Each structure stands twice: as C-alpha cells, then as structure tokens.
Amino acid sequence: MTEIVNVIGAGLAGCEAAWQLAQAGINVRLYEMKPEKYSPAHKYSGFAELVCSNSLKAARIESAAGLLKYEMEMLGSLTVPCAKENSVEAGGALAVDREKFSDSVTEKIRNHPLIEVVYGEVKELPAGKCIIATGPLTSDGMADIIKELCGEGLSFYDAAAPIVTYESLNKERVFFASRYDRGEADYVNCPMEKDEYLAFYEALTGAERVQLKDFETHPFSVYEGCMPIEELARRGVDTMRFGPMKPVGITDARTGRRPYAVVQLRRENREGTLFNLVGFQTNLKFGEQKRVFSMIPGLENAEFMRYGVMHRNTFINSPQLLNSDFSMRERPDIWFAGQITGVEGYMESAASGIIAGISAARKIKGLEPIKLPIDTMTGALSAYVSDPYNTGKFQPMGANMGILPDIGVRIKDKKEKYGVYAQRAVESLKKEMERVGYEGNS
Prior knowledge:
Helix content is 31%, strand content 16%.
C-alpha cells in the first residue's frame, strides 16, 4: 500500500494502532515528541511508557480486565504479549517491569519495516488520514489542534504513586502475602494496628499538598479511578480501610490475625528491587510524602526512588464526536485513540488503539469493517464511548462486567457467572472475526 497513515503519539494506543496498520501492509508515520519534549508525568524515552502504576490489572479471563486482554490478543495485540514477556510477580494480576516492557514495545515498533518514527512535537495536523493518540497529557500544540477539531474538552486530575527500594524496608515489620492467598505471595504487606492507623490518618489529612498551577481557572476535579490517597482520607476516617488499605483477606504473619489496616506494595521491576505503594497516588509535597509515608510500619527508613506526582488530564466529549470505531463523525479520515477518548486504564487505551488501527486499515483496503459485538468487552467499551446518550454526563470508563449485556440466567456464584460472560464474549468475537475474514494482525 502506498498510502501513509499518520499516528500521533507512541503511547500504548498509538503503538497498537501503528502495529495494526503496519501488520496489515500499510505504511505508517508514527509521531512521538519524546525525547525532545516530555509531559509533566513522563520520564522514560521509550514508547508505551506506564506512568501511574505498573499493573495491567487481573489476568484471569473471568474478570473484566482479563477478558479485555484476551480479546486484545485475539485481535492481534502488540502490548499484551510484550507485557507477558516482561511480567513481574503480582499474584493474580499482570504487572510489568516498566522499562523492559517499554523497551520491548519500542524495539518492535522501530524494527517494523513499514513504520517510520518521526520525533518532535506535532503543531500542525499532517495531511491525510490520522489517528490521534496523544494521551490525556497532550502537548499545547496538539491541544490547540484538538480543540479546533472537537471544541472544548473535559478535564480531570490524575496522580501517580511513590516507589521505594525493597532493601530499605524493615523486614521485621512486613511480610509477603497475596489477598485471599490468590496466586503467589507477591505483595509486601505493611500491617497497621488501630493506633498506628489513626496517627497516620491525622498526619495524612494535615499534610501539605502541591498547589496546581491552574487551580484559579479550573476546579479541583479528581477522577475516582486514580484518587489521591489524601483526598480519599478526607472523605472519612475509615474510607482508606474500605479502599487501598482494606485488611480483608490478609492475615498478619506476626500475630496470626487480620490487621486493622494494611498497606500493600507491588513489585515495580522483575528483579524485585523496587516496589510501589498500591493505591497511594498522591499530590503531597515530596518532603511531606517522606514524612507521612515513613509512618507506615516497615517504611520507617524507606528510600524513595520516585515520589508521587499529580497532573491534569484531558479527554474529549467522545459520545458527541466519535463513531464506535473511534473515527470522527464529521471527519471520518481522523480517528482518536487512548485515554483522550474517555476509556480509562492502560489496556483500555491500548484496546482503543487496536480498534482504530483495524478500522483505518480495513477502510483503506476497501474491506468490510469489523463490528465488535456489544457482548464483548472491546465492543461494550466502544459502544459506551460513542453512545450519544452519554453526551451530557460523560465520564471515563474502564473495563467492567457491568457494561456487558445481562446473560439472562441467574447464577449466584460470581466467578461462574463471569466465566459465562467471558465464554459468550470470546465466541461472539470469534464469530465476527470469521464473518469478515479477519485473523488478527499478530
């Protein structure tokens, strides 16, 4: 194919879109502003950089996240196999060594003969077909382009959790275990007694935060899926104990009983030298993070390799603008992909890139489009993002079983029920792929 498709942004969505196009025999020009310019949250020069967490959520197909990844592999995903190749122990979840994962994706993209990588910030929309996958931290230049295409966007604040070294943990206070003993004992657990928890709560709610630059013009709106721990604490003294610090399913190895609260740490790299504080996204000042988080049992002398950060994210009003294949209704030669569309989560973003890439490739080749069934996770997310009825109160949405149509049969056991959902989804997607003769661009 002589036509070139421009893909703007080499994050998860952009890389998946570029891969689908190139594997379909279409030339791709992939634009990436790193390493010439970085967003406030990005630090690594490689593609598909993970910012907030290194977890890609549950691996089992009976879960929403696991089903999504399974469907993505059926459709020829690039990132899911790369994630599996660079996984770290995380119980029943798929978590990765961030840098090795990024390096793996970057190598495959750079070495593809049909993908040309162009470095530098895009300030004018390239001529021809485009897939815009610049992410929620899109540059000022691209933001102006998107605003011209879409009008005013929506926005919210997002946060990342701190990372500490395993060597610096107090091994006498912490122990390895997975909640409910699922999978291997991969998480470091920091148990808290009631007095320790209350002291931590008081320190956390009184700690000093970083003042965001645009507070004066934008309200402090935080997306629930990445709520800063200090904001969660302000909702009530026990809120954290029903969230990231819930002790359910954990037995303190020292006492033989369930702790009052627990902080879990998850591997950040395969070697197990770095761990991140699960659910501890934060906007506290760095000095305050050191002071307050060092109150957590086991973290008294913790060495922080990265402090938590907070940044403003933006997403477009997709139900008003996009079709279910992520193409624009008014500009069908332009597709959007990634979190900027309002899908929430790493793999959800990557999945939208797959869909946009497949859509663009089949349109160029004159092939019948794939119509993702509504009872698949990819199809349900696509439908949610493009549903005109969501225009007024549109909020980001991640993979969850609640967006799938009911199976019409009452099954009490949740795992069994979700297994039926998963089986139905896999069969539906397979049938649609067979109908249009698509085998997946793996």
